[in-house]
Amino acid sequence: MSTLTARPSQRSETVTAVRASRSLTRRRVRRVTLGLLAALVVAGFARIALGKYVVAVPDLLAVLAHDYTGPADYIVWQITLPRTVLGILTGIAFGLAGHLFQRVLRNPLASPDIMGVSSGAGLGAVLAITVGGLSGVAVTLSALAGGFGLMAAVVLAAGGTRANIGRLVLTGVTGGALTSAAINAVLTRADIYAAQDAMQWLTGSLAAASWQDIARMALTLLVLLPLCALLVPAVDALGTGDALAAGLGVRVPRVRLAALGLAVALVAVAAATVGPVAFVSFMAAPIARGLGGGEGRAHHAALVGALLMVVSDYVAAEAIPNLALPVGVVTAAAGAPVLLWLLIGRGKAEA
């Protein structure tokens, strides 16, 4: 009799524990989201107002309200504000693409940078710039073609839609190396002025940010972000393993291809706009997982990517007096230690 009466109480305790765990997770997600949003707002205002020409807060508010005339009006609207807004938009794209890659492939070292997608987009853009003399939307389309072309070649070479994940990652790394070699070959034979423009683009920079670039990037995100939101639950299920995801009703090959396609589109458009900024996609997802207590969220990775772009651009432009660096230099310098740390961590885990 005591056994029969204990079972309902045990079930009640289990339900209570599950509800408490879910409530704790939701609170943590909200705290991390609000913290990242607050950090991004502070970093954005600092990037706009602080620099070689410091804009006081009252003046900045007046400039943003179109109630101010003077040097600050030009500096804010034509230089610092476009760089900040474009950094946020491209950072969202890079960070979300990194999350999709790492979740689908279940590997913290898998990212558009490591697997060569950025190089594929770079090859398409470099060919458009140096061979075709193109710019603007044409470069974006060429970068898209390069990114998708490389990803398709990697999937086919690895064995198709049901390829082993490890083989897919290794094939992507190989494809990226070959594409980087092709970029160098194109640059050595290009006109010196076109090659200089291509090299500046390859480093990644927000210096040439314009409101046209911002409009193009914003329209792209308006199309791609809702698709990502629809796909994220299935992508998160893939993170538990193909067998369990299939048991939950996820069509694994289709979801994997769709997620990789969305990630390639995000990276290609962002790279065509500001260049293939190194390691932002790679760093955003691990940082988001660390902030979330080991459980990565897509919107956290997007916000971390935006924060990385804004902070890195400020450091690149203002850290060294009389020397403005491209943002890609700073992100590469920050990403290299993160890559080493992840490699060491994986080595210890497998030992």
TrEMBL record:
It holds the Pfam family FecCD. It is found in: Cell membrane. GO terms for biological process: siderophore-iron import into cell. It comes from the Bacteria. One of its GO terms (cellular component) is plasma membrane. The keyword Transmembrane applies. GO terms for molecular function: transmembrane transporter activity. Its main location: membrane. InterPro entries: ABC_BtuC-like, ABC_transptr_permease_BtuC. The chain crosses the membrane at residues 32-55, 75-101, 113-131, 137-158, 214-235, 255-288, 323-344. The keyword Amino-acid biosynthesis does not apply. Keywords: Cell membrane, Membrane, Transmembrane, Transmembrane helix, Transport. Belongs to the binding-protein-dependent transport system permease family. FecCD subfamily. This is Fe(3+) dicitrate transport system permease protein FecD.
